[in-house]
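not sure who needs this but someone in the group chat was asking about YolD-like protein from Paenibacillus nasutitermitis so here u go. i didnt clean anything up, its just raw.
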Amino acid sequence: MIGMAKAPKRPTRDEFQLEELGERLIEAKQEESELMLTVWGWEQKVQGRIVLMDTRTRLVHMERLGEITKVPFMDIMNVENAS
């Protein structure tokens, strides 16, 4: 392990920020709205509709054009409406 480059750490967020993020995702799922997610460590934003929020794996399943992208909840940095 000596001499290995450290990957940048994911920015930490407090409980309030995480709760607010969760509420926005739940609301978007209920309204079936199209979102753009900024995901930590991912080059491109993820666009689509939430089809599943798996509490066991903590993954948010986003669907766009028939493809499912599974996004780790803790890596979601920003949520915005895609319109």
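also The chain has one helix and five strands. if thats useful
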